[in-house]
Amino acid sequence: xxxxxxxxxxxxxxxxxxxxxxxxxxxxxxxxxxxxxxxxxxxxxxxxxxxxxxxxxxxxxxxxxxxxxxxxxxxxxxxxxxxxxxxxxxxxxxxxxxxxxxxxxxxxxxxxxxxxxxxxxxxxxxxxxxxxxxxxxxxxxxxxxxxxxxxxxxxxxxxxxxxxxxxxxxxxxxxxxxxxxxxxxxxxxxxxxxxxxxxxxxxxxxxxxxxxxxxxxxxxxxxxxxxxxxxxxxxxxxxxxxxxxxxxxxxxxxxxxxxxxxxxxxxxxxxxxxxxxxxxxxxxxxxxxxxxxxxxxxxxxxxxxxxxxxxxxxxxxxxxxxxxxxxxxxxxxxxxxxxxxxxxxxxxxxxxxxxxxxxxxxxxxxxxxxxxxxxxxxxxxxxxxxxxxxxxxxxxxxxxxxxxxxxxxxxxxxxxxxxxxxxxxxxxxxxxxxxxxxxxxxxxxxxxxxxxxxxxxxxxxxxxxxxxxxxxxxxxxxx
Length: 479
What we know:
Blueprint: H1 2-38, E1 42-44, E2 48-51, E3 55-61, E4 65-73, E5 78-86, E6 89-95, E7 109-117, E8 123-135, E9 139-144, E10 148-152, E11 158-163, E12 167-175, E13 180-188, E14 194-197, E15 211-219, E16 222-236, H2 257-264, E17 268-271, E18 279-283, E19 292-297, E20 301-302, E21 304-308, E22 312-318, E23 325-331, E24 335-338, E25 344-349, E26 354-359, E27 362-370, E28 386-389, E29 397-400, E30 403-406, E31 409-412, E32 415-419, E33 423-425, E34 428-430, H3 432-436, E35 447-449, H4 461-467, E36 473-477
Parallel strand pairs: 2-8, 10-16, 25-36, 32-35
Antiparallel strand pairs: 1-3, 3-6, 4-5, 4-7, 7-8, 9-11, 11-14, 12-13, 12-15, 15-16, 17-24, 18-19, 20-28, 21-22, 22-23, 25-26, 26-27, 27-35, 28-36, 29-30, 31-32, 33-34
């Protein structure tokens, strides 16, 4: 009997020991899982994202550090780089569904690659995919035709507007006291944008008094994205400048940025005629019946006036047909003087195949480009040198020879500054072929610029398209 009790006690102790060992193993296993979980970096986003619309990027990190976020498409093109200091645990970052320059992302699959660098040098990485599904209707840009509205005008003042999708756009004008003097709404459904004119009329309450004003514009469906700019109102437009000898209209290599900017901001003598794509003859002699030595473009092409005699002007300019500089005669009465837009200027160097942007006289970025590649048979494919002015925007893209080119800015007849072309590879946009050619001649005469970020330079084809207003100076240096 005593032996039986002893055996039972021994069995109970053995079972208790087994159970204790079992629970200890479970505890150690859970602890290991917990430790493994805390050592893992994770990143997540909503499955679908809208452009111009706030969303959350969630980063769970086992330690504090600097997080670098890189937004890439399925072809590994870089759209955005962002750095944030994060803490250990959960971090919530807000994102607007756009690229580095507020680029609209197309309806494709993208991913964020995240690297966290801790103080001791440890690096952890994680990635999260998501789908773009369009954007909330937003006013993408509002670019005024100038900084002054003249009530007694020869040319009407206007604003170029582009929306990400059809919506109602509000234009609000405030005086120097901050009081609203005009509130106007416009329905914009045009896919290529809309030009909104204003002559100073205050909706039947007379005209705006001369003075300083502020113009604010936004989409009623997304009022968080406001486009704002100053506007002066003056009574009378200055008298038209006399066409006379201009001096050089092109900078020379080796000039300082200050000297280049001074030339960029000089008024342009252009052919005074409608239709910026039309060709006009430059004559060999002072007669419209004489031989044509070059074809020029009106309104956009700046002319160097070498001499005048009261009826004729002797002119130097780039020939649109060959890309070579020519000299000849134009009737003086067919010419006029216009001023370039004030804040930006573009310098394209065909020798180096680069494009440089100046803002208020300071160089803000240089990127590689592709200019025209002529052949013996097709000399017109050469990008003509000269001092040009950008035209009004006329669409977001166009197709040519199997490629689609985005964000075109016309500056010389049918020549544009635009993005590198892409082809469709299944459902993905493949830009690789044109991107590989940047830095060398490759186009049909236009100037191709990458749509994607390069190092820390802000200049992309989208940046140019959304920042450069009507009559921005574009100077193309010959090679």
